[in-house]
Amino acid sequence: MKYGRMLTYRQRNRLLMLGVCVGAAVAYGVALRPTLDLLQLNRQQLSDSRQLQQAPQLTRQLQGQAAHFTWLMRSISNDSARQEGYALDQLTRACRQHRVTLASLSSGEQTSSNGYLLETRIAKLRGDFRGLEQVVHELEYRRPVGRLSSVRFALEEDRKQRRSFLYAYLYVQNISSLQDAKH
Asked: Does pTM surpass 0.90?
């Protein structure tokens, strides 16, 4: 039997198209896909080589930033604002200037993490809102006694005097390196 004569023109055309599709898929799998993978790998290697060429510059830049941050940390730890007497003096001067009462000043609570020592002091001030606000501004910008990390206002009642007073809780933080703290 001859199969070529039994197929119609339409069936031969479909068979030819099917053969072309199968041939294209085989050609893609054998030749084109590995070529595209090699092209993508080549682009990735070019990108990596560019990064390697820029690595010394980036390393120098990061070392410069590390040196700058180390200098900043040392300047903070050697700051005279860390001394308790200086901090108390600046705080009382600001309070006296704006007619605010220093209710209490806690001793520093120290926390160490990742080679740094974080000391937090809480100052409790009593007065009117404007005076408290001026003291906060003074301590943050004009007479820094450390980093003013938080301010919390509270209205508390004194039962003996039967009056309410406005308090501001100032959280002052100082950061130092543990190596500098040992010296």
From this structure: no
